[in-house]
């Protein structure tokens, strides 16, 4: 059952020609796999942003802004802005577009 392995020899040029135009794209990754990964990354990013200054909030953190009524209004506007920007892409089923900001 043991025998010589099947092998082929290719030059670098042959390999490049065989794979030219076949680079993996985001479309090659299944949405079922991509969505949880993208959503987890966005969760991590937005949780970190809660304690960082945000320009739309007057260079204060969302957590600090939410302590006042006017600040909560600004935070709600900022979140709506983020939500609208992420959902404005060409594909409504894109993992970025399906992120839940709540």
* Beta-strand proportion: under 5%
Number of individual domains = 1
Q: End-to-end distance, in Å?
A: 58 Å
Number of helices: 4
The string of secondary-structure elements, in order, is HHHH
Class from helix and strand fractions:
mainly alpha
Which radius of gyration do the C-alpha atoms yield? 23 Å
Largest sheet: none
User: Which geometry do the CA atoms define?
Assistant: elongated
Helical amount: 40-55%
Q: Estimate the mean pLDDT confidence.
A: 84
Number of strands: 0
Features:
single chain, 102 residues, mainly alpha, elongated
Please tell me about this protein's structure.
- The chain is 49% helix and 0% strand.
- The longest helix is centred in the middle third of the chain and has 19 residues, at 31-49.
- With 102 residues, the protein is mainly α.
- The chain has one domain.
- The protein has four helices and no strands.
- The mean pLDDT is 84.
Write a brief caption for the model:
With 102 residues, this protein is an all-alpha fold. The protein has helices at 12-19, 31-49, 62-65, 69-87.
